[in-house]
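User: Fold this, then the next.

Assistant: Folding the first:
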Amino acid sequence: MVVTATELKPNLGHCLDLAQSEDILISKNGDAAAKLCNPYADRVRAMESLFGILPKGVTVDDARAIRADEKRKLS
């Protein structure tokens, strides 16, 4: 969604609510000047990209232990 800086001023609360679910570009004089976004969205996107990588039945703790063992073997 794109809003102008002028539109943003009286609608800040509404835009903050919308920013939880979508990025909002703020334009000034026709050019993008800033972006409102959910600060946790990058974490969610990273987790979604990793979804399904671990084999079934392997927990995150198991994967960490395996990784630590592999690092010890390399040192």
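Now the next one, as you asked:
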Amino acid sequence: MATTRSKAERFDASYRSLPVYWPVRWRLLWIARSDRRAGLPIGLSAETTPALRDLVARRDDACEHERTRYYAHVRPIDVRLAEIDTELVALKRTLAEKAEAAVRAAVPPSEEELVRRKAGERDLPPELVRQRRVLEHQRIADAAREAELDAQRRLDATLAEEAELAARRQNRADVTRSRALRLVEYADRLAALYRRALIRRHPQRDALVSSWRSDLAGPPAWVLADDIIPSHRAPGAAA
């Protein structure tokens, strides 16, 4: 299950805030000036204030756009990670088989095996026959050990690829979340600008100051979650 953290914990202060350009500032000031003539917001709520409601809608649309870009970027990564899950099952099985074969091949030959003669060895001295059997056994053991090492190398390479892809995926998630948090912080600053302008000369200023619930609705849940796409999968945890 994905956990959540506060915006302050998620937002990197070194990540430059979006600038509020003068056209945007003047637009909000003009809207606030017009809204002062309309009286108090219905229910003294931010949700019934058109300007703040519009800010939330624009913010959420922009955040969703960032998440859509994230999905498009990580889709090939997720496809490859799914393939790796399947490959790891086979690679681990192969490694286990090669390891067992290497253990069997490493068992020293019996005396009977050492003195066994093959075709064409009838007239050879016993010492030479024994030497040949020892060399044959060593070649078989070396080949089995090399096969085990090769299986281990292929497994290690696949695990390394999996870890690298998972890191790329997480990095992209962090970038997406940082961009979304920057959009959230930008919307909060625009809302604060509008609120100050509205309250400054509002004919019912005291009522706004004391009773207006002007905080914007919280950002989309995924923005503050540990995982944009919650996953219980761990690197190397193939079924």
